[in-house]
């Protein structure tokens, strides 16, 4: 049990949108099923169906095996990409964590933020998610940080804009 004198600093988790992963999974499954349907239809069109039992069963078994292998890889990849991104606000810092196994954590000073831009597509506007692009002032060159597909991006834009006004970077 932690002692009350050693508490963690307040960190707000900037939540990635779960809707994005659901939509991507549905789109991937739909596209794979369309490819599967055309493959089976092509098989029927190219083969004589008088003696089709053995070849048809073997073909369907192989196509199903490949289809489910591809689905498994796509689902794992999409989930790992979604779950492997986390953003946190802690005082005057933005913390970006990338990865599930090999985690890379980068901390950005909010005092270096020069501009904040929110990008939302049609679905993003409908379901309130988007990408925030932060431009940071560096010692030699500017750096861009993208907070991808997060819920309520304008709420966080206001937070970053407040830091810009405090620093005198008012647009």
Number of strands: 7
Q: Give the helices and strands as they follow along the chain.
A: EHHEEEEHEEH
Largest sheet: 4 strands, antiparallel
Gyration radius (Cα, Å) is: 24 Å
- End-to-end CA span: 47 Å
Looking across the biggest beta sheet, what order are the strands in?
1-2-3-4
Strand content: 25-35%
Helix content: 40-55%
Report the uncertain regions.
1-8
What coarse outline follows from CA principal-axis ratios?
Answer: elongated
User: What is the typical, i.e. mean, pLDDT?
Assistant: 81
How many DSSP helices? 4
SSE-based structural type = alpha+beta
Would you give an account of this structure?
Residues 1-8 have low confidence and may be disordered. The chain has a four-stranded antiparallel beta sheet with strand order 1-2-3-4. Strands 5-6-7 form a three-stranded antiparallel beta sheet. Helices cover 47% and strands 26% of the residues. A hairpin with a 6-residue loop joins strand 6 and strand 7. The chain has 171 residues and is an alpha+beta fold. The protein has four helices and seven strands, in the order E-H-H-E-E-E-E-H-E-E-H. It is elongated.
Short key terms for the protein model shown above:
171 residues; alpha+beta; 4-stranded antiparallel beta sheet; 26% strand
Compact summary:
The chain is an alpha+beta fold and 171 residues long. It has helices spanning 18-46, 53-83, 122-127, 153-167, and strands spanning 12-14, 85-90, 93-98, 104-109, 113-119, 129-136, 143-151.
């Amino acid at each position: 049990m932690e002692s009350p004198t050693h508490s963690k600093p307040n960190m707000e988790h900037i939540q990635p949108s779960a809707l994005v992963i659901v939509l991507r999974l549905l789109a991937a499954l739909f596209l794979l099923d369309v490819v599967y349907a055309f493959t089976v239809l092509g098989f029927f069109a190219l083969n004589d169906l008088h003696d089709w039992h053995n070849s048809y069963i073997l073909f369907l078994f192989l196509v199903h095996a490949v289809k489910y292998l591809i689905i498994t890889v796509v689902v794992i990849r999409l989930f790992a990409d979604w779950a492997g991104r986390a953003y946190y606000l802690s005082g005057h810092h933005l913390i970006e964590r990338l990865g599930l196994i090999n985690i890379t954590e980068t901390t950005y000073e909010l005092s270096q933020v020069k501009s904040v831009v929110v990008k939302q597509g049609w679905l993003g506007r409908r379901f309130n998610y988007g990408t925030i692009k932060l431009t940071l002032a560096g010692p030699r060159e500017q750096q861009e940080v993208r907070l991808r597909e997060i819920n309520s991006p304008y709420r966080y834009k206001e937070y970053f804009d407040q830091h810009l006004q405090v620093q005198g970077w008012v647009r």
